[in-house]
Amino acid sequence: MSAEIESVLHENRVFDPPAAFAKAARVGSMQAYTDMVARADKDYEGYWGDLAREHLTWSKPFTKVLNQDNPPFFKWFEGGELNVSANCLDRHLNSWRKNKAAIVWEGEPGDTRTLTYQELAHEVGRFANVLKGKGVTKGDRVVIYMPMVPELPIAMLACARIGATHSVVFGGFSAEALKDRILDAGAKILITADGGWRRGSAVALKVMVDDALKGCPEVSTAIVLKRTGQEVAMQEGRDVWWHDAIAGQSPKCDPVPVDPEHPLFILYTSGSTGKPKGVVHSSGGYLLGATTTMQWVFDIKDEDTYWCTADIGWVTGHSYIVYGPLACGATSVMYEGAPTTPHAGRLWEIVEKHSVNIFYTAPTAIRALVKLGDEWPHKFDLSSLRLLGTVGEPINPEAWMWYYKTIGGERCPIVDTWWQTETGMHMISPLPGATPIKPGSATLPVPGIFADVVDQEGNSLGPNQGGLLVIKRPWPSMIRNVYGDPQRYKDTYWGEFGGKYYFAGDGARKDEDGYFWIMGRVDDVINVSGHRLGTMEVESALVSHDQVAEAAVVGCPDDLKGEGIFAFVITKGDAKNDDALVKTLRDHVAKEIGPIAKPDHIKFTDALPKTRSGKIMRRLLRDIAAGRETRGDTSTLEDAGTLESLRKGE
Ligand code: WTA
Prior knowledge:
The protein has 650 residues and is of the alpha/beta class. 31% of the residues lie in helices and 22% in strands. The two termini are 27 Å apart. The mean pLDDT is 94. Residues 269, 314-316, 391-394, 416-421, 442, 504, 506, 518, 520-521, 527, 531-532 line the site of 5'-O-[(S)-ethoxy(hydroxy)phosphoryl]adenosine (WTA).
């Protein structure tokens, strides 16, 4: 890995927070921001401890804010007890928020549902009783594989209520990927649906589940929500319908208090090597991170209608559709389907329909919407919007300007939020009432987070020097472990700088104002449409096909998705390297991992560039995939001829 990263981006525009916005904001000036940073710097534990007392409801107060006895296994809020679902529901029920909308849901076909805090609490109580009845107890893992319907957050909160640890698997993943995650998590119970609506058709989920469960003999129960009404096979003794299960259940279920370190959820994410990592998140620290950033970064107010377009199968949906908004007593909009169904203006139609005030989406979606033309946003009234956000990948300044002008009407600040599955909360982001924003920069760390850009030895770099992005102190919502593999947790995140700093694979630079500019991944992880995919996983999927001998996968530039997937494939002797095989292999990867992992390009080759020790030199393949000249050193290459022949075949 090289710490010398060339920066090519130069952007000089700056936009100050509008005065009226700043006046009403939770954090309304740079002075207020720097005061918070200074307090955190001087009294780190006092800072986070006060916030934890202010923002969370504890059934037993904690006695120690941060235990650093056994790094990197940090413990937050020792001695305390709380329940996450009680923080998201019960504490609002004794206030005027009881009948406030918690979730405003839009189905793709146009059906809608609104659940008040009271109604949501009852549904969660009923379903928690169902889980209890199935023998689920504190610490058990429950896998959830569902479309974007209200029952998904209901299932998550029901797990949290009884202290079970949920693991949501994105509904776009294949049966194989689902099986791997169920096995890794050791789950005995699965919550799913017949299917969900996507691009006008009923996408089957239960069929995938049936396939996956063939390899998961430990799963004794699958609870199946009827969403689309499509034909499904129900296995006697194992499968039960959601509606049958909740019939007659009491809406009341006492929340089980848990230790703040108790794992609230496991979420699988890609790393550069090996199988996906089960990122383990805590209860207390995680919820504090989600709650505070919901207020600082999204400036959430009781009168806001807030919409994050992510899927709950990713961390963004966990922190900023479910836990953050609900803990704050906010109204969170949730949409089931595709952004362009039934027409290219669907998102803007939903903004108009619900008078959405805060809108959070990914740069990949913004770029796709730019291409569809301005007539779509112009058809709808977007004047309710007051704040926009992005997440998942660097946003190019052109897309930023379009978002700012065409969607935000030049009136809404944009919060470009840098964070990760592992960080649980926003780490680097503008606070919209305080931070002057620059298109393409995630700006400054949120108060209480100490981020820096360093060289390979861990020395801070000067302005505009590209290097490695690190976090210098443990923070409340940080990853606690890789499920079942503490060594991997230590090596992956704390190995780079001898345990001193957290490092999760991004390159960055800080400009002369201390603003962070994220430069993307420095490891073998591809960021496709804001979703991390390990090249390793795509390679294993390709090699699992019986015509493939070897494969190497790298990212390549892609206008729409940010990065595309480029696969170099060596086939077996009898294979016919034609378009039909390309299609077969792409479909095969979709089946093994899911459609998002389908290679955009497949190039057949006889050999791959390797070092003498047999390591594939992906750096060289990246140059070829991007159509660039080979850059950097090729002296460790075993056979220089392979590069020649790879290029010739172009
Ligand atoms: C990238 C998503 C630039 C980054 C919440 C990170 C970003 C990875 C930004 C985490 C941003 C996320 N600007 N890059 N605002 N936000 N990234 O785990 O490479 O799915 O490491 O979490 O996405 O992706 P993950």
